[in-house]
Amino acid sequence: MKKEIRIFFTAMMFLTRLPVPQYTDHSQEYLEKSAKYFPLIGWLVAGISWLTYVVFSKYIGEDIAIIASIIAGILTTGAFHEDGFADCCDAFGGGWTKEKILTIMKDSRLGTFGVIGLISILSVKFLMLKEIPKFTPDLSAPSVNVFANYGQFLLLLLAAHGASRLMGVYTIRFYDYVTDIDASKAKPITSRKPSAGLLAVATIFALAPFALLDYRLSIAVIPMALTAWQANVYFKKWIGGYTGDCLGAIQQITEIVFYLSVIILWRYWL
């Protein structure tokens, strides 16, 4: 149990800026095993974002609450995934060969494609999150407990953040890592592919929130998986596999796809 707790804190240290116990380090052994807890780290980010939204929504306003929740998530992760998405926008937008793409991706400077990509995806995320609370069943008969009113919204955020991080774990499992692995911050988790058991544990964690939601909402995982698969096909075509930045891009894109899928399901089926 102590070992598993340490592995969990290793995942937290790798994916967020949240404080961890001093005994947590960058052990390659623990980093390799930490991928099974990536969905749980997504839960932490979702919980912080949700709590921020509820507080700001009650005392200030919904639009500001949504912006505040997005900022809270970014601060929690240190823009870890957003940075990867922006780097991919710059690299694949400005590079036409594998070498050029990888060179641009390693550049710490943010280019035009990255800026446009970030503005676009954050704008879409804002609009999606503004729509989702309108459909949550809790608001059909609101109570005096503001936290209870957004219980379904919390479950959806847990599902979105958990499942979108699961897509990255599957990428690590089934695709090859490219670029100079010795110089990569993702080396410890990509040097050895996750085992089938580790993948199963991560999948269970990611799908757990759906047990408390309408079972039909679990369909939203299908377009997420298809999107991640197509992204990996694209990455493999151009650079022969994936990089750490590609994992961040997959998380961001599939999170958006989840929100869109849920809104469509609510509008036309539920």
From TrEMBL:
Main location: membrane
Recorded metabolic or biological pathway in which this protein acts: Cofactor biosynthesis; adenosylcobalamin biosynthesis; adenosylcobalamin from cob(II)yrinate a,c-diamide: step 7/7
Transmembrane segments: 35-56, 110-129, 149-175, 196-213, 247-269
Cofactor(s) the record lists: Mg(2+)
Example GO biological process: cobalamin biosynthetic process
Protein location: Cell membrane
MF terms in GO: adenosylcobinamide-GDP ribazoletransferase activity; cobalamin 5'-phosphate synthase activity
Function: Joins adenosylcobinamide-GDP and alpha-ribazole to generate adenosylcobalamin (Ado-cobalamin). Also synthesizes adenosylcobalamin 5'-phosphate from adenosylcobinamide-GDP and alpha-ribazole 5'-phosphate.
Entry's family note: Belongs to the CobS family.
Name under which the protein is recorded: Adenosylcobinamide-GDP ribazoletransferase
Protein source organism: Pseudobacter ginsenosidimutans
Gene transcribed to yield this protein: cobS
